[in-house]
Structure of Sensory transduction protein RegX3:
Amino acid sequence: MRLLLVEDDNHVAAALSAILGRHGFKVVHARSGEEALQALLPAETEPFGVVLLDLGLPDQDGYEVCGKIRKRSSVPVIMVTARADVRSRIHGLNLGADDYVTKPYDTGELLARIHAVSRRKPVGEETGPTPVAALRLGHVHIELPTRRVSVDGSEVQLTRKEFDLLALLAQRPGVVFRREQIISEVWRTSWEGTGRTLEVHVASLRAKLRLPALIETVRGVGYRLVAPSA
């Protein structure tokens, strides 16, 4: 797999490239946001499987770079940040990032996250017919084929994983989904470290839909969707 490493520190990039190389990745190093965007331009070379994006870049804000990447490519993006607060993580996810790691990170954790995002496939893009075209739950309308969500007729912009999570819960309202089950079906992995990412996505969905009670936390078990009244 080709991996685009966006990192302005040459020493960090060299060490990380060596580790990733030993695990079978073909690493392309970009030292700035502009280099990263140029590397993602359409070309005859093998496409990138993952972008590892450090937010501390010399020429552009890493969040801005993420937004530009998402406008031109669906390649999975993992943000690398020293900001551990939930608000910063939600901001990154809203811009289209698929995951994040917080510095300092364990190499094994990073590799697990890279493998996890590289094999994810959004709900509604699997092979075979879609059994249900749309779901209406009170004020919320979900169109599975077009991956569009609206509340009271107003469209809500969701990231890929936010939509996948909402679509999963909405297809069986009232049913409690275990955290492990959600991670398996939405993130296509059983790795336990994805749990924190799930919490951030749930918080982001509640805020975007402006229906904080829509997704109920079942303590010690998981989550369920509580259909709002019309």
User: Anything to note?
Assistant: The CA atoms of residues 64 and 95 lie 8 Å apart. The first strand starts at residue 2 and ends at 6. The first helix runs from residue 10 to 22. Confidence is low (pLDDT under 50) at residues 121-131.
